[in-house]
Write a structure and sequence with these properties.
The structure holds 2 protein chains of 2 kinds. By secondary structure, chain A is an alpha/beta fold. Helices cover 33% and strands 24% of the residues of chain A. Chain A starts with 18 loop residues before the first strand and ends in a 5-residue tail after the last helix. The chains are: A alpha/beta, B mainly alpha. Chains A and B meet through helix 2, strand 8 and helix 4 of A and helix 10, helix 11, helix 12 and helix 16 of B. Bound molecules: adenosine-5'-triphosphate (ATP) and magnesium ion.
Chain lengths: 272, 368
């Protein structure tokens, strides 16, 4: 996939952010994971969050999806101050997340995982029940859209390959991410075709007005779909750049902390 | 590739033979065990065991255990244990006895009051487990001793020194709600059957079996209800998810805390229900009631396919596990074997079940 891909990128400038986080700090005991990060996502844009291992990316998106409460800082959702008490709250607001660990239950079937926490129901009162058929057919259809033909919707997630599992998580988030879609390294286990598929899916939901937060270690993937790029380093933002204002090399250097990377690259003959 | 045909068959999926599909059901082990035990007693036991009265003879203790085991299985699927349910039977029995005898309350008040007290203690168990993050195993082990001790002390205080509270029968026998919790159901039907000579009778024409003990009906009803909840409701999905991986479930929007606390309340409530039935049946309450029932319930649940690690199991399995239990306890009296083989048998079943379940889990998850 080349840098100047065929994706038409979202114009961002004017629209108001769907979600805006200001000066977020997060401490775990005496570990300072985030030391004041500001970030926002607008409708119809893909905002990439980049940074080295341990930079705080996952911690940051978890404050956005209701898993962590920030130690300090404010979150505004559609202009109003918001404090998500749980991931369920964030979901109800239309924020869906693919977590780095995928949040899947290996012993449960694909369809049950897909709708975990948001089961479709049928019937009334005492006969209100989990609509298993609907869950199964929607899961199969959504997975097929992502380029994976499941053998059966009642297959346990534990029997899926790593990439298939990741695809289930992505398909699930896309299905439920009505306002914001957060993807934490969603392509780390994917093959070429599935990766292209995920990038195309990001492009598609973006064009529907969803704000996408995309975390990746792969600068080429980020450049392919990103409209804005924010680099995190040791719990702080190094800055945000718009598409076209920054090159892949510059991003790579920012992410890795420049100098050492240049040295490494020369010893490896520029293959990284 | 056809994209609109939902039923398109994947070429990489061999059609699974029925047996292989059954192998993936958690309750398979319990059903196989039940067949095995039945065959064993058919070969060794007196024919009387499998007559109607013989069957109801072992179904009664099976049902009493089953009420606990089904709830314990749901809690185990939800990823937690409750070791205090045996003591809860004694404690709830005391509360119930005090309500009926000392306070003179009618059952319509006494039963809900007993269930409410139990549910409250269950909720407390759950809250402590969730707040502290300690294993429920250890928290409820404390509950096992605390509740047993409270039952002893409380009964002595209520009765002025005895660990038994009598007089429940006198106080509650005429209560209109009593038939719901004690005695036999379908008495008219059984007498009608006896009159036609379709079931065994005493010389005076009365049927040898006066009816189906109500606890058996509760047992069957609860198994059906629990199965429905587990397999066909969102709450069931939440239970499996909470037990399978707490973090993943919470991050996916499952209200894990609510699920777990509710399960603790249900388990304690099941213990209280059993207490009500036992106390009404015996006419008195005793601080020794429910002794070691927590272990028997967990064993029945494990024989029924529950994994100790949570997230997998079935209520139907616990149902069959309890029947196996009742069959072995009572069945041995129909054979020439020493009754105390019961414990050996039980331990053996447990060990087999755990090994079997482990293998099944690997099959289901395709663990590599
Ligand atoms: N629950 C926690 N308790 C203590 N420390 C934590 C916790 N979660 C994260 N941290 C710390 O916060 C820092 C940031 O972690 P985070 O997972 O956000 O990094 P990341 O940018 O997502 O890294 P990666 O690229 O490897 O996924 C790390 O140093 C980590 O050890
Ligand atoms: Mg991360």
């Amino acid at each position: 996939m080349s840098e100047d891909s065929t994706f038409h990128h979202g114009g961002t400038g004017s629209a108001n952010p769907i979600i805006e986080l200001r000066d977020i700090e997060k401490h775990f005991g005496n570990v300072i994971a985030l030391a004041g990060v500001s970030f926002d996502v607008r409708p119809g844009e893909c905002h990439c969050l980049l940074g080295d291992n341990g930079a705080g990316k996952s911690t940051f998106i978890k404050t956005m999806s209701g898993v962590h409460k920030p130690t300090r800082g404010t979150i505004a959702f559609e202009g109003r101050p918001m404090s998500f008490a749980s991931p369920r709250d964030a979901m109800e607001a239309g924020i869906a997340t693919v977590f780095q660990d995928l949040a899947m239950i290996p012993l449960m079937s694909v369809a049950r995982n897909f709708f975990m926490g948001r089961e479709p129901t049928r019937g009334w009162g005492l006969t209100r029940r989990f609509d298993v058929e609907k869950a199964n057919s929607v899961t199969m259809a959504e997975m097929r859209k992502m380029g994976i033909n499941l053998r059966a919707p009642d297959q346990a997630v534990g029997t899926l390959s790593g990439g298939e599992r990741q695809t289930v998580a992505i398909a699930r988030a896309v299905h439920f991410g009505a306002r914001v879609l957060i993807l934490d390294e969603p392509t780390s286990a994917l093959g070429v075709r599935q990766t292209a598929n995920v990038l195309a899916t990001i492009d598609k939901v973006r064009s529907q007005g969803v704000g996408v937060v995309f975390i990746s270690h792969n600068v080429r993937h980020a450049m392919a779909v990103g409209d804005r790029f924010t680099v995190l380093n040791r719990g702080k933002t190094l800055g945000t750049a718009r598409r076209g204002e920054i090159t892949a090399e510059e991003l790579q250097d920012l992410m890795a902390g420049g100098q050492e990377m240049a040295q490494l690259e020369s010893t490896l003959g520029g293959t990284v | 590739m056809p994209t609109d045909d939902i039923t398109a068959v994947d070429e990489r999926l061999r059609t699974e033979p029925l047996l292989a599909r059954l192998m993936k059901r958690p309750e398979l082990g319990a059903i196989a065990g039940l067949v095995l035990v039945t065959v064993f007693f058919l070969l060794t036991a007196n024919d009387a065991m499998f007559t109607l009265s013989g069957i109801l003879n072992f179904m009664a203790p099976a049902a009493q255990l089953g009420v606990l085991a089904i709830a314990a299985a749901m809690l185990m699927i939800g990823g937690e244990f409750d070791l205090s349910i045996g003591s809860m039977v004694a404690f709830a029995g005391m509360i119930f006895g005090a309500c009926v005898v000392n306070l003179g309350l009618p059952l319509i008040v006494a039963v809900p009051a007993t269930l409410a007290v139990a549910a409250l203690i269950g909720a407390a168990n759950g809250l402590i487990v969730l707040r502290t993050g300690l294993p429920s195993f250890i928290v409820t082990l404390a509950g096992l001793f605390i509740l047993r001790g409270l039952s002893l002390v409380g009964l002595k205080w209520l009765t002025g020194g005895s660990t038994q509270l009598r007089g429940v029968r006198d106080a509650a026998a005429d209560d209109w709600l009593s038939p719901l919790f004690a005695g036999d159901a379908f008495g008219t039907l059984f007498r009608a059957l006896a009159a036609r000579g379709w079931i065994e009778t005493f010389p005076n024409g009365e049927p040898k079996v006066p009816g189906v003990p109500v606890e058996v009906l509760w047992f069957v009803g609860l198994a059906a209800l629990a199965t429905w909840v587990l397999l066909r409701t969102p709450a069931g999905n939440w239970i499996f998810a909470s037990g399978g991986d707490r973090n993943a479930a919470a991050n996916s929007g499952v209200p894990v805390r609510r699920v777990k606390i509710s399960l603790f309340m249900v388990t304690a409530g099941a213990a209280a229900l059993l207490a009500v039935m036992q106390v009404l049946d015996a006419g008195s309450t005793d601080a020794r009631r429910g002794f070691q029932k927590e272990f028997e319930a967990i064993i029945a649940a494990v024989i029924g396919g529950c994994l100790l690690t949570g997230g997998y199991g079935s209520a139907i399995g616990a149902f069959f596990g309890s029947i196996i239990f009742g069959m072995v306890v009572i069945g041995l009296t129909y054979t020439g074997f020493d009754q105390d083989w019961f414990q050996v048998f039980l331990g053996g079943m447990l060990l087999l079940a755990v090994i079997f379940n482990n293998a099944i889990r690997k099959r289901v998850t395709g663990e590599r």
